[in-house]
Structure formats: C-alpha cells, structure tokens
Design a protein that fits this description.
The chain contains 13 helices and two strands; from the N terminus they run ααββααααααααααα. The protein is mainly α. A two-stranded antiparallel sheet has the order 1-2.
C-alpha cells in the first residue's frame, strides 16, 4: 500500500511518455484521473496509522560498498505524508487544468507525461529514507523543470529561460552533492535516523557545520531565496500550468522540505548561528519578494512571489 502511492504516478508517467501518442485526449484524461484517485485512496488508508507510527518500506538492497550499506526504501512519517498530500492535490488539479489549457497542442501527451514524471520525482524526494535517494529525486525534479520550462522549444526566450533556471539550480545541486560527500565522510552512511542519532555525540563539529551549510545553499537555490531568485521570474516562459505546479507550489516545497529534514542537525547547539542566519535570509527574501510583487504588472510573477512569501 505504501509503495502504491509513488509507483502509480511513475506508471502514469511511463505509459503517457511511451504510448501517449496512441491515446486520445479523453483516454489520457481518464488514465490520469484513475492513477491519481487510486493514489489518493492509498494515501488515505496509510495516513492515520503513519502519522502516529512512522513506517519505512525497504524495497530492495541498493548499495553495498566497503563501509556503506544502503537500502532503497520509502519513509512515511508525518512530514512526508503531509507534503505528499499537498503534492498530489496540487498536481492532480494542474493535470486536469492542463487538458483544457493546451488541448489543441499536438504535444499534449509529452506535456502531461512530463508533468507526471515531475510529480513522480518529487514524491521520490519527499519519501526517501536517505540523503542519497533524496538527491536522485532532487536531480529528477530539476531535469523535469528544464523540460517543462522549455516545452515550447521553438521560442528562443523559452530556451534561454530554461537554461538560466537549470544553471542557477546547478549551484544548489553541486552544494547538495558536496554535502552528501561530507555526510558519507563523517557518518559513513546517508540514512536519516543513523545520521541524526550519530550527530549528537560526533566530535567532527566543523565538518557537520560545513555539511549543513551545503544543504542550506541547495535549499536556498531550489526555493529561489534572495540571491537565487533571478531564475524564478524567467520561468514564466513555460505554459501557465508549469508555473502553477513547479515554481509556485512544489519545487519551492523541495527546499523547505530539505530544511525540515535536516532540522535535527540545525538545532544542534553548535549550529545556533546558522539558524539565526536562515532567519535573516528569510526576512530579506520576504521584503524583496513583497517589493517585487507590488511593483510588477505581470500577474503570474506577482502570484509567484506572493507564494514564496507564503512558504516563508
């Protein structure tokens, strides 16, 4: 039941991307509705029990190299369930709207399939049971973002906007990768619970602080905080559903989710200054987003910056 939620969305993306050209728009819509409704039902069955008793589903052994042994699994706790619910709800509504928004576009199957693939990767991100698996979802989300922003690839402005978005997000991706390497060096694992328990008595406080800083840079770039916000305004070159799903609702959530996941490390006594720094960055982003929203005339840009304020 736990794996059904993520697997159904992945199956939906695979079917549409591979065989979507053989389906009519009505068949595509029925397929999307069926998979999302089934995912919602599965989420409903596990929601009450999982919030009280977190569950980890081990799917298969994944990596076993020297001192590192990782299993590919899904973690369902109160954080992942709530964010998964938001993702599924927003994604379902955006999928339905997309059928009417670009119903006459000959590339409708590619668009719907990429939307489903994006939803699949962000579900992988929020339900991962280790940082390495989170990184896979993180990269998948960035790749789908590039594909969706440049959906109308014949427009030069769309191609430039997609390149700008992925270039700036790569700064965060590199920071995430460096943090992952430091995590493996310090803790010899990337599993959440092992890292959080070990951090309380680990003496490598300097390396732990550097690891946290790397993850914070990754979160800031994905959430378009001050200094990384310049890609967000150009992302409107993609279709309107892309702006609604990626940059106003879920891709910003990825950065927020990462900060929530590393919160046990943030609240260590040695990292109190980092927490204060995050507060200052949030205030500056709040002020900047508000000023931009008030002085802009493009409704899509205004809504996007207002939603960044809401997530803060």
């Amino acid at each position: 039941m736990l794996a059904t939620i993520t697997c159904l969305i992945g199956l939906n993306a695979a079917l549409i991307l591979l065989f979507g050209r053989f389906f009519t728009p009505c068949n595509l819509q029925s397929l999307v509705i069926y998979h999302f409704i089934t995912a919602f039902i599965s989420l409903h069955f596990v929601c009450i029990k999982v919030i009280t008793y977190p569950a980890t589903l081990i799917i298969a052994p994944w990596i076993k190299v020297h001192f590192i042994s990782l299993n590919f699994g899904l973690l369902y706790d109160s954080v992942s369930i709530i964010i998964s619910l938001i993702i599924l709800l927003v994604s379902f509504v955006v999928h339905l709207y997309s059928f009417f928004y670009i119903k006459h576009d000959p590339h409708l199957p590619r668009f719907i399939g990429t939307l489903s693939l994006f939803t699949f990767f962000i579900l992988i991100l929020v339900t991962a049971n280790n940082f390495l698996q989170t990184f896979i979802g993180w990269e998948g989300v960035g790749f789908c973002s590039y594909l969706l922003i440049s959906f109308w690839f014949t427009r030069i402005s769309a191609g430039k906007a997609a390149f700008k978005a992925i270039l700036i997000n790569k700064i965060g991706d590199i920071a995430f990768f460096l943090g992952l390497c430091l995590l493996i060096f310090v803790f010899k694992t990337t599993e959440f619970h092992t890292v959080f328990i070990s951090s309380t008595f680990n003496s490598n406080t300097t390396l732990i602080t550097l690891t946290i800083l790397c993850f914070i840079v990754a979160a800031l770039s994905k959430s378009a905080q001050i200094g990384f916000h310049i890609w967000l305004t150009d992302a409107i070159e993609g279709p309107t559903p892309v702006s609604a799903l990626l940059h106003a609702a879920t891709i910003v959530t990825a950065g927020v989710y990462l900060l929530i996941r590393i919160s046990p490390l943030l609240f260590l006594p040695t990292n109190i200054l980092i927490t204060h720094g995050l507060f200052i960055i949030s205030i500056l982003t709040l002020i900047l987003s508000g000023i931009i929203a008030v002085n802009d005339f493009d409704i899509k840009k205004i809504i996007r910056f207002l939603l960044v304020i809401i997530w803060l």
